[in-house]
Design goal:
This protein has about 130 residues and is an all-alpha fold. The protein has 6 helices and no strands. It is globular and about 45 Å long. The relative contact order is 0.15.
Length: about 130
């Protein structure tokens, strides 16, 4: 057996330091979902418009059409004149990555919509 300079404990530390693909996609979604929804909110006449967009993305994902949901997310960037982040665009050749990203995008969107609704309720109460 060949001798190596790397001990098993060193390898374990490296493995723990490397985020998984799911973690990376979660970070990508977390970083880029909010700016997109903030721009959409700026252009939308109401939260109902945003809810309809959210519903469409969820419906596509639930029907197994993650690629189409991803395409809609890309199109929304174009509509808001936001550049598609390279980290997001780079997922295009990877169907499993797209599916994971859309799932994370939906989860992040649910949190963002709750924030928007709370802001709207607070402004109506003022």
């Amino acid at each position: 057996m060949p001798k190596t300079n790397v001990t098993s404990s060193t390898m374990e530390k490296k493995d723990k330091a490397m985020p998984s693909t799911a973690d990376l996609i979660n970070m990508i979604s977390g970083a880029y979902t909010s700016p997109l929804w903030d721009e959409l909110r700026y252009y939308a006449s109401s939260l109902d418009t945003l809810r309809r967009i959210q519903t469409a993305i969820i419906a596509l994902q639930e029907c197994g059409k993650s690629t189409e949901a991803f395409g809609l997310i890309i199109a929304l960037h174009d509509l808001t004149d936001l550049d598609v982040p390279e980290a997001v665009a780079g997922l295009e050749p990877f169907p499993d990555g797209i599916k994971m990203f859309v799932g994370e995008f939906i989860a992040d969107t649910k949190d963002i919509m709750c924030d928007f609704e709370a802001e709207e309720a607070a402004s109506e109460g003022s």
